Amino acid sequence: MSRQAERNVRRPAPPAKSAAQPRRPRVPWRERLAAWRDQHLYSFFSSLGRLAARPWANALTVLVLGFALALPLMFFLLFDNARDLAGGLREAREITAFLKPSVDARGADRLAGELRARGDVAAVLIRTPEQGLAEFRQLSGFGEALDVLRSNPLPSVLVVTPGEKTDLDAPPLLAELKADARVDLVQYDAAWRRKLSDILHFGERIVAVIAALLALATLLVIGNTVRMDIQARTAEISVMQLIGASDGFVRRPFLYAGFWYGLLGGLCALAIVIAVELALAGPAQRVIESYGGRFALHGVGVLVALAVIGASALLGWLGAFVATARHLAAGQPQT
């Protein structure tokens, strides 16, 4: 018998294929959903437990995140209060005409009547020298010094409101008032409004840039913290992968850890900002009231607080995702 025949005799025949292979039982969607929920709940609370197991080290990380997130929030509140304080000036449309000292009350009434007859003028308000002196006495606090004056040095003032259809950039009325021989000085409030709008727009851009930079710093801090946690649990992750754990299962606890870092950092930032607000609100309000202002400072609202907490938690999740994606891209952590 040849060698080829011996091989054919010794080689066992392949098993005959059955006509119908048994199908894998299909798991109902309710059970799959329950398993998915249990896995997320386990990762959610186990990640919080790991953070609580190292309270001092994680507290320092949370404090760093809190200060990093508190700075843009304080800049935003400062800018928002300044914008509300300047809201009246931004809406100003009046032209203030200071008349010459030689123009008496009759001359001021005559000029006011001429302006009211124009079609591009909505209203004209006359402020007499007596009204101006009384207002200056009330706002300046130099009442006793003003009593020494023998005469009123203030001129009559006309506050002219242009019509709704008037071009606010360069109204013709402005040039005519400047050319009038009875007018000494003309102040156009819309010009101040444009300057103030430009300053506030610049401040808004600065706040956005600072917030973006500190948000990036927060993301990097959380990503580095999660990366160190992954390196400390290299052996555990290797065992989990050997018994068939997927990358999603391995990644999930670290994502929730980043979520907790961001959430606690946002709460810490709110606590810092509220403490600063309570420390400065009283003195700042007294300064505003000393200048005759009726503006009330406002702090962190409910919507702003929720937005800060949500944004910080999202930054934590993103930082953890970036860190785990690098270490688990090849199917095992890299050290």
Note the main attributes of this structure.
335 residues; alpha+beta; Alpha-Beta Plaits; 2 domains; 4 strands; 7% strand
Please tell me the overall pLDDT. 77
| Cα radius of gyration in angstroms | 37 Å
| N→C terminal distance | 60 Å
Order of helices and strands: HHHHEHEHHEHEHHHH
State the helical fraction.
Answer: 55-70%
Counting DSSP H or I runs of 4 or more residues, the number of helices is: 12
Walk me through what this model shows.
Part of the ABC transporter FtsEX involved in cellular division. Its main location: membrane. InterPro entries: ABC3_permease_C, FtsX, FtsX_ECD, FtsX_proteobact-type. Residues 209-324 form the ABC3 transporter permease C-terminal domain. Forms a membrane-associated complex with FtsE. With 335 residues, the chain is an alpha+beta fold. The chain has two domains: 42-88 and 195-328, no CATH class; 94-167, Alpha-Beta Plaits (2-Layer Sandwich). 68% of the residues lie in helices and 7% in strands. The protein contains twelve helices and four strands, in the order ααααβαβααβαβαααα. The protein has helices at 3-10, 29-53, 55-85, 87-90, 105-116, 129-140, 143-146, 172-179, 189-232, 234-242, 247-290, 302-328, and strands at 95-99, 121-127, 157-162, 183-188. The protein has a four-stranded antiparallel sheet with strand order 2-3-1-4. Helix 3 packs antiparallel against helix 9 (189-232) and helix 9 (189-232) packs across helix 12. The longest helix is centred in the middle third of the chain and has 44 residues, at 189-232. It is elongated and about 100 Å long.
